[in-house]
Backbone:
């Protein structure tokens, strides 16, 4: 019975994980890409911030993060609406937008938008 329960739990976890959409934001000294991020309300996302530069970079999206839910274990990766990524590193966090709208985002030397539909 325990093995059957564990197998069911593993299958459920895999099924839930399969619905997480990955969005990669690549940061460099000249900006970030994509500079327009399109999201669906109440969808589950893995946001991956990849810093390809030789210095720390910030990605700021205070209004966006305030208008959604960040997974509990990832909340400490955001300070005042900003994700700081050390040189050559990647920061990943789970996020679910809760409100439709267009939100300003800022990255290294550039501005963009996040659109939640």
Residues:
């Amino acid at each position: 019975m325990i093995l059957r329960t564990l197998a069911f739990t593993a299958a459920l976890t895999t099924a839930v994980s399969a619905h997480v959409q990955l969005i990669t934001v690549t940061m460099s000294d000249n900006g970030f890409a994509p500079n327009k991020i399109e999201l669906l309300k109440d969808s589950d996302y893995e946001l991956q911030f990849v810093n390809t530069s030789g210095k720390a970079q910030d990605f700021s999206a205070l209004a966006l993060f305030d208008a959604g839910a960040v997974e509990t274990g990832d909340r400490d990766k955001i300070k005042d609406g900003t994700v700081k990524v050390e040189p050559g590193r990647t920061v990943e966090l789970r996020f679910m937008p809760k409100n439709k709208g267009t939100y300003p985002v800022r990255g290294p030397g550039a501005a963009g938008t996040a659109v939640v539909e």
